[in-house]
Design a protein that fits this description.
Elements (H helix, E strand, L loop, with lengths): L24 E15 L2 E15 L14 E3 L5 E10 L4 H6 L1 H7 L3 E9 L19 E3 L31 E3 L30 E12 L3 E10 L20 E2 L5 E3 L29 E9 L1
């Protein structure tokens, strides 16, 4: 019986494949890369990727429509741009003839930077209700925008996360029981489906550094270096809450939004904000941070 069922080790029960290249996903992209080789004290490089990925679901999105989509978007940024540079300050011919000590001060400093910009991460389609064995009963309401009118999720001038609900709960409604609500509604598949135009705020990463080696004779070297993350001190916002559009918003004692559909929980109490770690802040705000390093070797 074990041989018939394809179980060579029946004592371990059902063994599922892991990492099997069974063609359950698809990835298409346009990738470009540019490199500037070192010249005139400058070297730089960068790349741009325009991509789209899909995962195959075990069930179609609509039980009642065999022709409905069998693949869903994967969490891959549609557009990504990254670049880096290093510039080494040169010796000045003018100071070489007039004030040689100035060249000792200004030459051989290395200034570097790295930046990465990508589309905001996809927001998961709301999952409300499990009637009739469906993972979600929320369906799109025609004509209703996904975001609150007037809100640009990537422009903080258009909303205040303390007081503004950024997602539009009217964009979703529960599918009536025993009703076919059509395709494209995340019905019947696993949770975690996405829409192309339903994405959270972008979180750019911009870092910079400056440093130099001061060499004394042959065996002594003094290195000084300063590194900065979030060099432009951008405010990076967390993903909005997108669980149930039917849930009412909640506020703390200060009247600041902290929960409910469409809310970005960005509030941090006094003395609780952490240091920026190069990624999106889990609770909203992230400040610029710098580190100064000095090293003497001999």
């Amino acid at each position: 019986l074990s041989t018939v069922l394809g179980r060579p080790f029946p004592q371990f029960g059902t063994i599922g494949p892991a990492g099997s290249p069974t063609g359950g996903s698809k990835y298409d992209s346009l990738q470009t890369k540019a490199t500037k080789r070192f010249s005139h004290g400058l070297q730089a490089g960068g790349f741009f990727t325009w991509a789209q990925g899909f995962n195959t679901e075990p069930f179609r999105q609509d039980y009642f429509n065999p022709a409905s989509n069998h693949q869903v978007l994967s969490q891959i940024p549609p557009r990504t741009l990254s670049f880096n540079f290093i510039y080494t300050t040169p010796k000045s011919d003018y100071f070489a003839n007039h004030a040689k000590f100035m060249n000792t001060i200004i030459k051989d400093w290395q200034l570097g930077g790295f930046a990465s910009y990508e589309s905001g991460p996809f927001i998961v389609i709301p999952t409300t209700g499990t009637a009739e064995f469906l993972t979600t009963q929320d369906v799109r309401v025609a004509g209703q925008p996904l975001f609150t009118p007037g809100v640009d999720i990537n422009n903080l001038k258009t909303y205040n996360p303390y007081t503004t609900v950024v997602l539009n709960p009217a964009a979703w409604a529960q599918c009536p029981v025993a009703t076919n609500c059509g395709t494209g509604t995340a019905l019947g598949g696993t949770t975690g489906n996405y829409l192309k135009n339903f994405r959270g705020p972008r979180n750019p990463r911009e870092n910079a550094n400056i440093g130099r080696n001061f060499r004394f004779k042959e065996r002594w070297n003094f290195q000084v270096r300063a590194e900065f993350t979030n060099i432009f001190n951008r405010t990076l916002m967390a993903q909005p809450i997108a669980t149930s559009p039917q849930n009412a918003v909640s506020k703390n004692a200060l009247g600041i939004l902290t929960g409910g559909y469409g809310v970005i929980n960005a509030y941090q109490g006094p003395n609780t904000a952490g240091i920026f770690d190069g990624t999106a802040a889990a609770s909203g705000l992230a400040a610029r941070a710098g580190t100064i390093i000095a090293r003497f070797s001999f």
